[in-house]
Amino acid sequence: MPATVRLGTCSFADEGLLKAWYPKGVSTAAARLRYYAERFDVVEVDSPFYALPDPDVTRRWAERTPDHFTFHVKAAASMTFHEGEPSDQAFHEFRASIEPLELSGKLRGILMQYHPRFVKSPEAKEELTRIRDRLDPLVPFVEFRHRSWMDFDERSDTLGFLEEHGLSYVSVDAPLTRATNVAPRVAAATHPVVLIRFHGRNWKTWNIRGGTAADRFDWLYNGEELAEWVAPTRRLTEQADEVYALFNNNKDDFAPRSAVIFRGLLDEAGIAATGGLDLPPAEMTLF
Predict the structure, then answer these.
(1) Is residue 280 included in any domain, yes or no?
(2) Is the pLDDT confidence value at 108 over 50?
(3) What is the pLDDT of residues 148-184, one digit of tens each?
(4) How many domains would you assign to the chain?
(5) How far apart are CA 226 and CA 258, in angstroms?
(6) Residue 77: which of 117, 19, 105 has the closest Cα?
(7) For the ranges 36-50, 115-129, 200-214, which has the lowest average pLDDT?
């Protein structure tokens, strides 16, 4: 039986969402997470990449979401060559910070988004062999930011290597540019749990100097662009047990709006999906 595609966004507390998506009155962390969870059943939390959260914070994430809700968390910068060489200690500190979320049973996977300097090499492949043991039993989602891993001549080797070592390749939608820090649009399943991340297609801002994440991912998808992913997504649902499609185009409310468009396309194609419902804001009451 094909897997159900679970839609979500990369963060429930980005500045753009706070300004443009959450209704007036939905102004506390608890209220925002409750509002989000009414519309999506999965979220990727990217804030630990920048600073490890207090375990009390990750405990509240679990407490404030329904039983069926799923979290993915982005690995700390120290784990993916953004801050020197990864170490067992870096992984230990990260796991300790999210332990309450993991113990709740709601944490499914860890996004390992590697720095562009992580170029394919025997040494880099050796580093990847350590990931599964460091994160077990969580799913390691590997996103490359250097095209050497997915150049046509290297693609088969890379995907086979990830599958052999229990690592899930992250299929990405990003601008088609000559920049080496952009991977091609390849949908592949190397693990029973699959992740697609939509970064937008703004090639003008992808490598803008001094730009923010919102600048880089400033893109509202249209139906024609997302339709390109319907057939590949269908294939992934036939190859994997779980499929997640998360939107990282975090300018204003572009991510949830894009998710709604994609949900409509999946529904039209007869592909089972959750999330991305265009629900009206609930009426605010005093009680």
Answers:
(1) no
(2) yes
(3) 999 999 999 999 999 999 999 999 999 998 889 998 9
(4) 1
(5) 8
(6) 117
(7) 200-214
CA angle 94, 144, 238 (to 5 degrees): 95
Does residue 211 belong to any structural domain of this protein?
yes
CB 29 within 8 A of CB 22: no
Domain hosting 260: range is 5-274
Q: Which tokens sit at 20? A: 């443009």
> At 95, which CATH number?
3.20.20.410
Q: Which DSSP string do the residues of the chain spell out, in sequence order?
A: -PPPEEEEEE-SS-HHHHHHTSPTT--SHHHHHHHHHTT-SEEEE-GGGTSPPPHHHHHHHHHTS-TT-EEEEEPPGGGTTSSSS--HHHHHHHHHHTHHHHHTT-EEEEEEE--TT--SSHHHHHHHTTHHHHHTTSEEEEE-SSGGGTSHHHHHHHHHHHHHTT-EEEEEE----S-TT--------SSSEEEEEE----TTTTT-TT--HHHHT-----HHHHHTTHHHHHHHHHH-SEEEEEE---STTHHHHHHHHHHHHHHHTT--EES---PPPPPP---
- Residue 246: CB atoms within 10 Å: 25
Residue 284 lies in a domain: no
Residue 281's pLDDT is 65
